[in-house]
Amino acid sequence: MNKRLNIIKAFCIDTGIWVYIVFTVNIVLNKISGISHQKTYYEDMPSYLVQGLLIATILFFIKGCSLGKDILKTTLPQSQAYYKRPSTYIMCMVFLLTILSGWYISEFSLNDLFSMDGLEKATRLFSSLFSPNFKVLPKAVSEAIETIYMAFMATFVAIPISFLLSFFAAKNLMSQTISQKIVYNVVRFILNYTRSVEPLIWAIIFIVWVGIGPFAGTLALMLHSVASLTKLYSEQIENMDDGPYEAIKATGAHPILGIWYGVVPQIIIPFLSFTIYRWDINVRMATIIGLVGGGGIGELIIQYTGLSMWNEVGMIIIVLAAIVWSMDYLSSIIRQALK
Amino acid sequence: MPLLKIEKLNKIFPNGYHALKDVSFEVDKGDFLVIIGLSGSGKSTLLRCINRLYEPTSGRVLFLGEDLTKLSGLKLRAMRAKIAMIFQQFNLIPRLSVLHNVLSGALNKKSVLDGLFYRYTPEQKKVALEKIELVGLSHRTYQRADKLSGGQQQRVAIARALMQEPLLLLADEPVSSLDPATSHSIMKYLEQINKELGVTVICNLHFLDLVRRYASRVIALKDGQIIFEGYPRDITDEWFKKIYGEDAIEVKTT
Ligand SMILES: Nc1ncnc2c1ncn2[C@@H]1O[C@H](COP(=O)(O)OP(=O)(O)OP(=O)(O)O)[C@@H](O)[C@H]1O
Ligand SMILES: [Mg+2]
To answer: Cβ contact (<8 Å) for B112 and A249?
Structure first.
């Protein structure tokens, strides 16, 4: 029974691989022959499917040509060295085809990168960037301060929320009763959903909600920080040593004290160092969020780039570099001290 | 009335493993009961079912005449307060001082708020210092407990257990991660607690010479069942082979 299931699985793997190979070969051929420049990957899928299925079916019965069988080890161990097996060549082919089709799909073009026209523009741009306009320094610094405080507020508000949530998102603490398991899964789902949406998107949502400005940006950062800090925190809780918690539980203390004495002392240092790291990330993200109107120095960048004022942009980049550098330095010092 | 009476205790883990099978025995006040058996025979599981760190699947655990398996919440915690436990891995609270580790044995008498803010009465501090002195660690009172040696950590754990003023002490392989000399010193503390303070002790051990030296009674487990119950002197070579297998040879902790 199990064996039959494995053979079906092997066939599915083979089919998947061959459909993929047909797909990439088509992309490469189309590009070389210059037939089609339109993205019709989805529309062409049925034909790839049929072709892949056909090839997979034929090769499935030829000895040593089925990758699926090799992966699932349904056949006896092969005496052939791995570099002599057809399946090894198929894997190499998949890898090569992925690089080739990737090159075409992402429109890699050395011509564009090194065209005279392009190089000339780039030279002009860089020379402006490297001769910054110091007149905008006061403005840049003011906006930078806004960015740093946005990041700080977002982190600060996220800490207690994540701290509380992390206990509900830790599997080892939440696997006793059914209701615990439900809470665990709901919390996890919401967090994963929140985290998978980029802060940039959240910023756009909050701009609609509370209007353009730093508050929208802060909210976006906060939400994302809560989601990622909770995940980091709860993983730390899951990896902790249960011993001290059990020891306190065994004394007959209240469960909250069990957590306070048995769990918190173990996780407090990693928590702090994650948090500082997060603040660091938030400063960088706050810059990006400014680009869509979430306040701070990002807003300045988008203004000046829109007007092609590259000397001014050059100034801002220097300010940003200074911030990033000092944040790096600060956070590494603090984390070192915490050890 | 015996202090502790176990009746037909069964433990089946969620994965279906039947770790304890109809285990029944009694422990009288003042006993030093040692549980022996091969690794995996269910010794830790048995101890943990007594204070409900593990939930027994069926059976009764009568402590002071009350069935612990029926209790929950406040009542369970009140009973746990009378049963202290020490562990192979010591399980001290990292980053806290020796004093605060010992004080944590009194958390069962604290409100949540007092506990959260580490508020202890002067009386409790005095008792804690006494217990620390009893295990000979006065010169380490304010040091971090997790920086001490294994033997010293186990002594802190014993002091924490004593802080509970327990009637019963459960010791799960208290000396398995210590060297022979330190093992004896820890066992002597347990003996002292048993003889002088009158605390009943149930202890898991691996080395038979320790069993012969310290136990007043012995129970042997095999595959979750009691196969021997008696006095240390009754463990003959024949029994030894039954408990540990035909090929086993007795090793000594000098
Ligand atoms: N949480 C668990 N889930 C499933 N099985 C478990 C669990 N804990 C222990 N067991 C199993 O129960 C059996 C008894 O384990 P237990 O830890 O009580 O043995 P032990 O006698 O204390 O052994 P050792 O001397 O190695 O500590 C083992 O076979 C173990 O695999
Ligand atoms: Mg054990």
So the answer is: no
How far does residue B72's CA lie from ligand 2's centre (Å)?
A: 25
N residues, chain A:
339
Pairwise CB contact (< 8 Å): B91 & A247 = yes
Amino acid at A144: A
Strand arrangement, sheet containing B18-27:
B18-27, B4-12, B58-63, B66-67
Relative to beta strand B4-12, strand B217-222 is unpaired
For atom 30 of ligand 1, the residue with the nearest CA is B40
Q: Are A222 and A162 in contact (CB under 8 A)?
A: no
- Asked whether A184 and A116 are in contact (CB, 8 A), the reply is no
Among B4, B35, B15, B34, residue whose Cα is nearest residue B225:
B35
pLDDT digits (tens, 9 = 90+) for A296-329: 888 888 889 889 889 999 999 899 889 888 888 8
- For residue B127, the surrounding DSSP H or E stretch is helix B122-134
Ligand 1: distance of its center to the CA of B189 in Å?
Answer: 27
Enumerate the residues of chain B whose CB falls inside 8 A of the CB of residue A178: none
Relative to the alpha carbon of B43, which ligand is closest?
Answer: 1
Contact B77 A265 (CB under 8 A): no
Give CA–CA dist A244/B68, Å, rounded: 22
d(CA A248, CA B127): 18
> What is the CB neighbour count within 10 angstroms for residue A85?
16
Is the CB of B112 less than 8 angstroms away from the CB of A261?
no
Pairing, β B83-86 against β B66-67: unpaired
The SS3 of residue B228 is strand
The CA B39 to ligand 1 mean position distance, Å, reads: 8
What residues form DSSP beta bridges with B63? B4, B66
Q: Give A113-164 pLDDT, tens digit per residue.
A: 888 888 888 888 888 888 888 888 999 999 899 888 888 999 999 999 999 9
Q: Residues of B with CB below 8 A from A260's CB?
A: 115-116
Of B23, B45, B57, best ligand 1 pocket probe by most atoms within 8 Å of the beta carbon: B45
Question: Cβ atoms within 10 A of the Cβ of B228, count?
Answer: 17
A233: left (phi over 0), alpha (psi -120 to 50) or beta: alpha
**Cβ of residue B37 lying under 6 Å from some atom of ligand 1:** yes
Q: What is the ipTM of this complex?
A: 0.89
